[in-house]
Amino acid sequence: MDTEGFGELLQQAEQLAAETEAVSELPHVERNLQEIQQAGERLRSLFSLVSILLGSRGLDIFHISQRLESLSAATTFEPLEPVKDTDIQGFLKNERDNALLSAIEESRRRTFLLAEEYHRDSMLVQWEQVKQRVLHTLLGAGEDALDFSQEVEPSFVSEVGVPGRSALNNVEVAYSRQNVSDMWLMVKQMTDVLLVPAKDTLKCRVSVDMQMAFVRQALQFLENSYKNYTMVTVFGNLHQAQLGGVPGTYQLVCSFLNIKLPTPLPGMQDGEVEGHPVWALIYFCLRCGDLSAAMQVVNRAQHQLGDFKIWFQEYMNSPDRRLSPATENKLRLHYRRVLRNSADPYKRAVYCLIGKCDIGDNHGEVADKTEDYLWLKLNQVCFDEDGSSSPQDRMTLAQLQKQLLEDYGESHFSASHQPFLYFQVLFLTAQFEAAIAFLFRVERLRSHAVHVALVLYELKLLLKSSGQSAQLLSQEAGDPPMVRRLNFIRLLMLFTRKFESTDPREALQYFYFLRNEKDSQGENMFMRCVGELVIESREFDMLLGRLEKDGSRKPGVIDKFAGDTRAIITKVASEAENKGLFEEAVKLYELAKNADKVLELMNKLLSPVIAQVGEPQSNKERLKNMAMAIAERYRTNGIAGEKSVDSTFYLLLDLMTFFDEYHAGHIDRAYDVIERLKLVPLSQDSVEERVAAFRNFSDEIRHNLSEVLLATMNILFTQYKRLKGAAAGTPGRPQRTLEDRDMVKLFSKLNDCLINHV
After folding, report:
1. Residue 454: is it exposed, middle or buried by C-beta count within 10 angstroms (0-12/13-18/19+)?
2. 53-82 in b/e burial notation, b at 16+ Cβ within 10 A?
3. Name one GO molecular function term (predicted).
4. For residue range 646-664, what is the model confidence (pLDDT) as tens digits?
């Protein structure tokens, strides 16, 4: 019976165990009793270690939870009990409590609102700075991708080869130098205009007189360049050129045509002069910019040219190279009736140039290079408001600019292979900002772009972006359609970023151009850039000067650029202070002769370290030497700051001396120092007086009172034990006898002072 009962129990137990194991949701015991006990012992030991560690700091970890539970705000903010109408005392008490609570709540609300406002303003300033850094980093942001699939267009302007010193041979280096020389000749030519002082650069740039001057200068540059090219070609092929006759443009063009057109071309009209087609001679004389030479050809072939001689004389004598409206209409009518489909490309080109007509014809047979096309189109630009001209006979400068920059663009001119050529196209059409922005995107030519921008900026010909956050090249609302603006500040900051940390002197040269510019917060950009440069490079002495032992200032690089260097140094010092570089800020404020800030920051630096043990090469030792040097200079030169700051500084120095003596074991010397300072009470009678004086001390002193009191009590206790054990007083020192009861009372009062006032 019993056997069967135990068998059933066993079977039920096994069945229960099987069912339990099948249920995955039930927890499984992973530790046995012994492992649980060991884990508990480890936790208890860790708790003991924590309590010992916190106990060394004066915290009773076993009673903290009890103390926290005992704290309650219910009694402070619980609703006030209703009072009877006749209970005047209770009514006044409730009104007083209500007023206090309302004032506290209003103060809390205002504090939170003020904190949120300060936080929001700070975040906006930080975001603005971050945004500027991001925009400066994204150099090519917003620019369209370039398509350079076309073949390189032939040009007599040579181009720089692949960037890199090893990729250029001697011939290519010579060509690149020639390109740079030609570029600066072009810049000089285009900026050699009559500058009219104007506050509004945009108004000056878009005026008709200024635009006409730009076109004249561009034509003169293209004509001089082509004449030089013609001379180089002729003198390089003297045998084929057969140069001779009276020196001048006429003979030069004849010799050039011996090379360019060695055999007569079919379709040439109106005969020849000295074996050359008459219209080719006229065209190339005009291309070289010599109207007199062209007139010489016209006179020799006047019988074949009909009325052209009369028209050309009027064109030659016109100050702006423009026929009168009546003559122009006659020439255009003759061109449309007779010459539009002429087989002589040079004759059609000359008529279109003189009459400024048929602007849709690019004259590809004659203008086979970009410079020729540009010269021809600039000659056809009109500036008058002539409503009688048809659209196909009138081209404005804005239309030509749009055609070159937007319709054709970089891909048409193969700008990646010929950057100087595309820069020339934009610059000669008075699109200075677009030309600079393009050249700046080419790494090896970036410095040229910056220096061209500096030239235009100094001549007040550069259109600048109104906002620092704008892209490098931008359009602004209200400007004429083809006007672009350059972010000059961003251009310089991007350029100097590469070398400002290694060559701060050179960076400062460029920052000086920003002396009249302001950022979005109205801050002077020169001072801002100098501040950032000094902080990042840490070249304080080189850039801002240094302080000599006698207190005089040795000038730095900044003195070459600014008359009032004190304002710049103060600005840099403020930046260093805001970034937490207090030691550097102290030196800079001393350079700026701002004694109050020097002592104020030194007090903040000295306060945390005066109670530390001084060791060689330690933070305290460095600050101590720095403070002693400042104190020596100020005492020698009679310099003093604000009374409270000044007294705090010298008191901190005395306390540092006190702690140095104390840590060195010189108890009597330390006692003499603290006794002279009269900072802590050393007798029963002076306790109240010293306690009342505590509230007059600055925060830097009050933060160290606990350490001062502790050190003082240790000194008194050491002296007490020594005097108690000695039969007589120390020779040369007054007898100090303290009773046990007096010592206990003094220590108790010092402890109360520490708790209640520190």
Report:
1. middle
2. eeeeeeeeeeeeeeeeeeeeeeeeeeeeee
3. structural constituent of nuclear pore
4. 889 999 999 999 999 888 8
Residues 644 and 616: beta-carbon distance below 8 Å: no
Return the closest-CA partner of residue 376 out of 283, 276, 314: 283
Say what the pTM is: 0.69
210 in Cβ contact with 193 (< 8 Å):
yes
Residue 717 to residue 723: CA distance in whole angstroms: 10
β-bridge pairing 546-547 and 553-554: antiparallel
Two tokens at 224?
A: 């001089």
d(CA 753, CA 747): 10
The letter for the amino acid at 133 is: R
**C-alpha distances out from residue 555 to 329, 414, 562, 698, Å:** 71, 51, 11, 36
CA 90 to chain centre: 66
479 three-class SS: coil
Which 3 state secondary structure label does DSSP give 563? coil
Is beta strand 272-273 parallel, antiparallel or unpaired with respect to 276-277? antiparallel
Rounded to an integer, what distance in angstroms lies between the CA atom of residue 216 and that of residue 210? 10
How distant, in Å, are the alpha carbons of 166, 458, 587, 598, 626 from that of 547? Answer: 47, 35, 8, 13, 13
Give the HSE-up count for residue 758: Cα atoms under 13 Å, Cβ half-sphere.
20
Tens of pLDDT, residues 46-90: 655 555 555 555 556 556 666 666 665 555 545 555 656 677 787
Give the span between the Cα atoms of 309 and 398, in whole angstroms.
32
Give the C-alpha separation, 166 to 184, whole Å.
Answer: 25
Q: What angle do CA 536, 539, 541 make, to 5 degrees?
A: 145
